[in-house]
Amino acid sequence: MILIDDESSDNTAQIIQKFCENRSNYEAVHIANKSEEYKGKKYALKKGIEKAQFENLLFTDADCIVPSNWIDSFNKFVLEDIGMVVGYSPEKGVSSFRRFSQIITADFYCATINLGVPFSNNGRNLYINKKAYERVEGFEKIKNFTCGEDKLLLNLIKGTQFKIIYNSDCKVYTHPQVNDHVNQQKRRYGQFSLSSPLYKVVSLFILLFFLYLPFHVIFNKDLLGLSIYYVSFLTFWICGLIKHREPFHVFDLLYILIYPYYLIYYSLLGMFSKWTWK
Fold first, then answer.
1. What is the rounded CA–CA span in Å between residue 241 and residue 248?
2. Cβ–Cβ contacts within 10 Å for residue 262, how many?
3. Which domains does the chain possess?
4. How many other C-beta atoms are found inside a 10 Å radius of the C-beta of residue 114?
5. Residue 122 DSSP label
6. Phi, psi torsion values for 87, nearest 5 degrees
7. Which ranges in 158-222 belong to alpha helices (H)?
8. Does residue 67 carry a pLDDT above 80?
């Protein structure tokens, strides 16, 4: 277990150092100075990976709650041809709509990975085969991006012979970022430039479809078309709840209609306005 302090301004480094004393299977890494070359948290991750003695790497964040079966849930994926395993990491104690948005995002990760066209992931619950990491030269090609290192690394690995798998068996909860919600959503949804050309084209068509949909329904009174869309989305939603073992909430029926416009709003806001790295 490698605990990395990325130039924190409080006493985190001392806490980590003290915790690792007399524990032979724990090691503390302290980043004294931020790297100008590797933006965001890539340098800290890079130094941690260099310290790792083994080929199988599991990643989480300091604000996450890791269950006792976390490592065990990834054991069946430790194979030579698997380069990355994307895990499920919801926030704990959030509003029902924020819960909905996180589950639907995880559903999209799961669906695209299972279809062989992985879209994205998150670094809070992630497995990487060290050989796959080295095959794409680590963070070297993406070191200038401030954030999105997990998604960018996924894009690099999917271009190799290594497979990318989704693991819904183990939830790694994180605490919600409540004081900087707008900035967080802009950063999360506004990473259009990090997507592959295929997803940029697909995203554009999705944007146009949802902008057109309300006008089509109002002016053409096409309730059948709206019903087909709604039932399709609802079916996808229910399958996602089953996959992630999440309960159904009655408000989900309303959120199915709201969420696409929430996604469009923050995607456009993130692309065309400034946001800061936490």
1. 7
2. 15
3. 34-272 (3.90.550)
4. 13
5. -
6. -105, 175
7. 181-189, 197-220
8. yes
